[in-house]
Amino acid sequence: MNPQALAHLAAGLGAGLGVIGAGLGIGKLAASALEAEGRQPEAASQIQTTMIIAAALIEGIALFAEVICFLLQTK
Amino acid sequence: MIFIEQNLSVGQQDTLAGTVAQPIAAEHKGDVFSEMIKELHNGQEWTFGPFGSLHLPYIFYDADGFHYYANTEVLEQSHEYVLKEEKPVHASDGLPPKLDLSISRNVAILWLVGAVLLVMFTLTAKKYRSSLIPKGFTNLLETLVVFVRDEIVVPTSGEVGRMLMPFFLTLFFFILLSNLLGLIPFGHTVTGDVSVTAGLALIAFILIQIIHIRKNGVGGYLNHLTGGVHWLMWPIMIPVEILGLFTKPFALCIRLFANMTAGHVVILSLIGLIFFFKSIFVAPLSIGFALFIDVLELLVAFIQAYIFTMLTSLFIGMGLPHEHAHASH
User: Fold this and answer.
1) What are the per-10-residue average pLDDT scores of chain B (329 residues)?
2) Burial code of B272-296, b = ≥16 C-beta within 10 A, e = fewer?
3) Which of residues 243-272 of B touch A (CB under 8 A)?
4) Does residue B98 share a domain with residue B184?
5) Who among B5, B254, B303 is closest to A67 (CB)?
6) Contact A26/A58 with Cβ under 8 angstroms?
7) Residues B197 and B278 in one domain
């Protein structure tokens, strides 16, 4: 197979798999954040802040995969 | 997103008008995406769409002194340097110049961001001479500054953070302004360039080490590297901790860069779908999605500035001496 085609295929697969991980992680995070907010509505703003921070960190890891895929598809 | 290899020659226009007009005549399908993503790359011109472009000078420092070329045409005519794959190299041996100090587009926008920040804050600070009650834009800036101090810096790094407030404020507002500048027409996100975010992360890294060494002493700083385990575990612990020293700012750099660039790539790809399908009926859907992603980009701009500042403050605070005893980090 054309190595260029392989590189593009790998880039696409890698990006997709990375996003699956991020989606699962952030979904779980949102679920527990909502549950905690339901249990104790007074702590809502604290929970919201922590949720945003954790979401950004998890997204950071997913974007590692994205960056590598960007590098791959230029090959 | 389908990126098919393209055979564009160097002499093709890279204005936005050219980008729009190009795919109508393109033979290869999928050219439009690569062409649009090229708009995100750093170059020597700041293009204002169909209204023209600002040509920025090349400045090299070579073995025989400084060279200055006003724009690309002058560079080509000088016969000393040629452009190989958009990068200037010597005409004689194909090597790049020793020091490339050219004012590229991102450098010009960096300077613009710095100038805007300087003007904005010095003018705002002057307002406080007449009265301590802020009005209008001063009020907005004061809200943001107090937010940075009370929600980001002081909870994570305490009094040391309070001392470092100018740095955190500069960091926060620089990243925020750069991110927002990318969302207005003809603006580009400098934080979407990995060099800029790497520079920010480098500054954060150096500052973290300096503050830790100052507050803990060199002995205490090295002690933190062992992590408080038994000395037999040190050969395992110390490399891991040293690696951890470097991965944290590296993650800061990549997180900011990838978040900014990914958002722009998604918006450009969605718009490019209209040209890819060469049909007007894709437009409402495409523009709708692109608008949604654009608003999300606005949120991400704020969040990324917040996260970068907060994580830097957190890393500084994590290595400071605590009042209570702790077993290990």
Assistant:
1) 37 41 41 80 83 83 80 76 75 78 90 95 89 85 93 89 94 95 90 93 95 90 83 87 90 92 89 86 90 92 93 90 56
2) bbbbbeeeeeeeeebeeebeebbee
3) 251, 254-255, 257-259, 261-262
4) no
5) B254
6) yes
7) yes
- pTM of the complete model: 0.83
Tell me the two tokens of residue B68. Answer: 């200055």
* Both structure tokens of A13: 């697969």
Residue B20, domain member (yes or no): no
Among B72, B102, B132, the domain-final residue is: B102
- Does B79 lie in the same domain as B194? no
d(CA B179, CA B189): 6
Instruction: Kindly report the nearest CA distance between residue B154 and chain A, in angstroms.
Output: 15
How do residues A37-52 score in pLDDT, each as one tens digit?
999 999 888 898 889 8
Based on the fold, state whether residues B69 and B121 are members of the same structural domain. no
Is B18 among the domain residues? no
